[in-house]
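job 3f2a | input accepted
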Amino acid sequence: MAASRSDLVLAHLNHPLVAMATRLLRAEVWGAGHLARAASLLVADRRLTDPVLVAYSRLVLVGADGKRLHEELFPAGGWLRGSSFARLGVTELAGFLDAALGPDAAPQQSPLAIRAELSRIWWKVEASVEAAITARATERELSLQRSLGKRRADEQTRTTSLLAGFERSLRAALIAQDSDQQLTFADLDVEERTRLAADRAAWQQRLDALPAERDAELAAIAGRYASVRVLWFPAAVVHLVPAGRAR
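job 3f2a | predicted structure (247 res):
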């Protein structure tokens, strides 16, 4: 979408601006903001033979140490025929949402009568919508749990590699300092000798502590992934109505 746009900039998920935008959006959704969390839209999609009711929910995976391991919004929805609700498959639902809310879509708010009817029957379908959310959240949980093992292994490998590189740097610094001392130590004054000795002692102490630090880091990673909590919260409801229903 950004390839043909000069007013859009791609940013990494860990970029401070993205993090700030995420915090603001989260505050609007879950706080006392002014973001509407329900919409009923007229959609010009011939595949839409009946209204479709969609609930977006927030899924969060939290490690044993409280660190957020994963966060996403996922949709779950189905056909709304009268006061009955029939869950849609993931692919079919995604197709309807892409057509209704994609970059080329031009949805309009449905008439007041349609919105009033949805409010009137909501209590009859609420339990079915919640069941669809739970089912989809469970599916996502199982899929993500399978990928967490690889993510844990990758994190452990990255930690081991970083600490190994740090260890090599410390050893190289110690060897270089020993070589320099052999050539120049006699020419140094007392203060410089004391500073060099203190630096060398600090580097050696840091080097000696690395094995225990590595073991602690790896144990912390293993513990983080040993007990993962899965949480989900409904965030918004979208009602897709065939445009012909407004006539």
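job 3f2a | The longest strand covers residues 68-81.
job 3f2a | closed
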